[in-house]
Amino acid sequence: MNKGIYIATLEPNSGKSIISLGLMRTLLGKTAKVGYFRPIIDDSKSTGKDNHISTVLSFFDIKLDYEDAYAFTSSQLIKKRNKGKSGEILDTIITKYKNLEDRFDFVLVEGSDFTGEGSVFEFDTNVLIAKNLGLPVILVGSGVNKTEDELMGSLQIAYTSFLERDVSVLAVVANKVQEENLMVAKNGLSNFLPDSVEVFAIPYTEKLAHPTIKEIVEELDGEVLFGAEFLDNQTGNFGVGAMQLRNYLTHLKQDSLVITPGDRADIILGALQANISTNYPRISGIILTGGLKPEEPILQLIQGLSQIVPIVSVNDGTFSVTNRVGNIKSKIYASSKPKIETSLTVFSKEVSFDKLIERLINLKPKGITPRMFQYGLMKRARTAKKHIVMPEGTDDRILTAAIQLVELDIVQITLLGEIEKVKEKAVQLGLVLDLEKITVINPVQSEHFDDYVETFYELRKHKNVNRDIARDWMADVSYYGTMMIYKGHADGMVSGAAHTTQHTIRPALQFIKTKPGVSVVSSVFFMCLEDRVSVFGDCAINPNPSATELAEIAISSAESSLAFGIEPKIAMLSYSSGTSGKGADVDRVREATEIVKKERPDLKIEGPIQYDAAVDAAIGKSKLPDSEVAGQASVLIFPDLNTGNNTYKAVQRETGALAIGPMLQGLNKPVNDLSRGCTIEDVFNTVIITAIQAQGFN
C-alpha cells in the first residue's frame, strides 16, 4: 500500500514550496497524521536549519523532530559520493523514510533545490531516490524566462526520465506562468502527457516573488533602527528616494520599500507620514544607505510616532543596495504568514489534488480528526458558495476574515456599514478590499430599505410597531441583515463580534422564527481536540433548560452532528453516572434522556453520565459496561449554561483545542452569534459552518 508522494523539480527557484504547502494542507484534510521528509537539503549559512523543513513543521504543527525530517545536507552528500559511497546514501535515505512511514499515515517527500555545489547531479539523484522509495511523483517546472517550447521541452524530458526508471508521474505542474498563458501551458502539457497524468498551471505571483524586510536585512547585513517587530512585512516594489519629497510621494505604490540615503530626513519623515495617510499607499519599510543615520532630533521624532515600519541602516551606497535588493531570491519562512497564506490561496484556486489524493490514500483512520473536519468544512462550503451577510463591517476581525474567505472562493460576502468607513478600515489594516468580490451596504441608503421597512411593519404591527418604529429598527445592522435573510437576499448571517448575543438573535426570533416542531433555539460548539471532534451543547444560549428543553437540545445537537459528518453518540452529562445519583438536577437529566429515547429511538444516548465516563474508554467501561455511548461519546449535552460555558472554555484553554462556534440550531434560517472576544479564525470558521447550514435550507 502506497504511503507517500515525491515532489520533484528540474531547476532552482521552481516555486515548489507552493506545491508542498498546498499538498500538505490537502493531505491533512484527508488523513490524520502526515509526515514530511527531505532526503537532501541545502547547507544553511545563517540559521543552520533548512527553511523548507522549518516552515512546514511549524505552520502545520507536525510532531516531528527536525533531525528526522532529512537525511543529508548537500555537502555531506557530495563527500559520500566522492568516496564512492552512493549505496550508503540510498540506504540511509530509505531507512529514514521507512521510519517515518511507520509513524505516519502518509509522508510528503520534497526533493532538492538545485542550488548547491552538486546541482548538476541533482535531477538524476531525485529520480533515483523516488525509484528506491517506491514513490509516485509530482513534477514541477518554472516558466520564468522560458518560451512555451522551452518549458514544454524541459518538462517532457523530465517526465520521460522518470518513466524510463519506472517511476510513476501522477501530475505535472507548470509554475510561475504568466496569467494569460495558463491555458496555453495546460494544453501544452496535455499534448504529450497521457490522460492518467493530471496537469496544472499556476500563475506567477508578485507577492511571492518579492522579499520580506527580514530577507533584505540578512542580505545587506543591516542594522534595524526601528520596527523590529515588523520585519516580516512583505515588500511590493522598491524605489530610490533621491528627488524632492513632493515628487517622490507620487511614485509610492502599495508596500513600497523606500531606499534613501540616511541623511534625507525629508524623505524618511514624508514616507512615514504617507504610510499613515489614507491618501497614500502603505509602505513596507525604509532602507537608509551609505552608513548614514538621521540626527538625534529626527530619531526622537520617529520614535514618538504612533505607527512605524522597519527602518534599517546599511553601509553600502544607494546604487549597490538597489542592485542587491533586486537580485534577492525570496523564500517562504515559517514566520512569513502572509506569504504562506498567499501560497495556500493561489494553490486552492489553481490546483485540485482531491482525485489524486483519493488514489493515493487507502487508509481510513478511526473517527474524524480536526484537520479532516476543517478540510471537509471548507470543501463543503465551497460546493455551494452561499451568500453570508456580516453586519459589523468595520470590525477588524470581521473585515480580515471576510477578505480571506472571498480570496479562497468559499462564500459570497456582504458587509454592512458606511462604505467609506469600511474602505478606511481596510487601508488601516493594510488589506486590499475588492468591491467586485465583497459587497458593502449602508442599510439606510440601500435600494431595499423602504421595502424592508414595510415588510417589518407588516410582520410586527400586531405588536404595536408603526412605520416610524419599523424604520428605526431597520436602520440597525442586525435587523437589516436578518431581513436580508428573510427576503432571500442572503443565505445566512454571522454577527456578535461587536454586539451582544441578544442583539444578534432577537430579530431572528421576531421574524425568522424557529423550525416547525422546534420550540428551543440552542447552540453547539465543534470542539476540535487533538484526536477527535466532539459536539458540545448547549454552551451559549439556554441558562436552565427543563427536561423537555434539554431533550430537544440533545436531538437538535445530534442532527447537527450528523449534518457535519460526525456519528452522534449522545452523553447527557450530570454529576453522577447511571442510577446512583439522586436529586432534582440529576433527575432532570434522567427524564430528558428518557424523552429522547421515546421520541428518537434511533439515536444512541446515555444519561445521566459523568464527563470522564463519557469520553474515557476505561472509565466508561468500568462505570457503564453495557453502554453503546460510555467512553466514546461524540455529542456531549450539558445540564445548564453555567456548566457548559465554563467546561468548553476550560477544555479550549487547557488543551489548546479549537472551538468552532457557537452554531445556533432550531431557526428557520441560519443566524450565528460570535463572542465579542472572537479571533479572526473564529469568524472564518463560523462563516463556513453558517454557509454549510444554509445548504440545508434550499
From TrEMBL:
Its main location: cytoplasm. GO terms for molecular function: phosphate acetyltransferase activity. Residues 373-691 form the Phosphate acetyl/butaryl transferase domain. It is an enzyme of class 2 (transferase). It is found in: Cytoplasm. Pathway: Metabolic intermediate biosynthesis; acetyl-CoA biosynthesis; acetyl-CoA from acetate: step 2/2. Homohexamer. In the C-terminal section; belongs to the phosphate acetyltransferase and butyryltransferase family. In the N-terminal section; belongs to the CobB/CobQ family. Involved in acetate metabolism. This is Phosphate acetyltransferase. It comes from Leeuwenhoekiella palythoae.
